[in-house]
Design brief:
alpha/beta; seven-stranded mixed beta sheet; 5 helices; 7 strands; globular
Length: about 220
């Protein structure tokens, strides 16, 4: 009888982890997350609020609060890859992105394409931490002709068929082109327009690159 009970007890323990093991596993997973991504979260809070920031830095761009995930945009590459699939804590190589969005890409839109390109170059050693992309409703033939020479490093995105876009509050690409700043987690955190200078955008990006260890 004693032998049978011992076997039964052993079989019971092999069925799965105990509640204490589950709790310990969760604590370990949380600790690993905080070690890997805690600095990024903390830096973002500091950036938004100026908390513990002796320089009292304030951003030049328009904050998106709360940040909006790019999943809301339903954008994809020409090969069908969803933009949202490039971001998130599971992607160790996820980068920051400047995304230009516009309806008809007339002069105000092209000004932002040029601004994003020049600011990216001006970042110097941090330039490869930020990618550039654009969603443009329509592009005039003159710009299409020049695109390969002037904006070859800026990826063109398209709307996934049958989906509706949900832009962050205050962003209306059909009326006004914007540059959306997307963090490595896939959230739009700020946006810029023609009222912002290249110097203002560059200052924000340099500050973020200094604070962020992600991307």
């Amino acid at each position: 009888m004693t032998t049978t009970m011992a076997k039964g007890t052993s079989g019971h323990h092999s069925e799965g982890p105990t509640p204490e093991q589950v709790r310990r596993g969760r604590r370990t997973a949380l600790l690993l997350f905080l070690i890997g991504f805690g600095p990024m979260v903390f830096a973002t809070i500091m950036y938004y609020t100026g908390w513990l920031n002796p320089a009292g830095h304030t951003n030049n761009g328009e904050l998106v609060l709360p940040p909006v995930p790019v999943t809301e945009f339903h954008l994809q590459t020409s090969e069908g890859e969803l933009l949202a699939d490039r971001f998130g804590p599971e992607h160790a190589d996820a980068e920051w992105m400047m995304l230009v969005v516009a309806g008809d890409c007339t002069e105000p839109c092209e000004n932002l394409l040029y601004l994003a390109r020049q600011v990216n170059i001006a970042l110097g050693k941090h330039a490869d931490r930020i990618t550039r992309a654009a969603w443009l409703g329509s592009v005039p033939s003159s710009l299409e002709t020049r695109w390969g020479d002037e904006y070859s490093a800026m990826e063109r995105l398209q709307l996934r068929g049958g989906e509706a876009q949900a832009w962050p509050a205050g962003i209306r690409p059909q009326q006004e082109p914007r540059i959306l700043l997307i963090d490595p987690f896939g959230n739009v955190m700020m946006h810029y327009g023609n009222e912002h200078s290249g110097k203002a955008l560059l200052k924000d990006l340099k500050h973020l690159m200094k604070l962020s260890q992600i991307g």
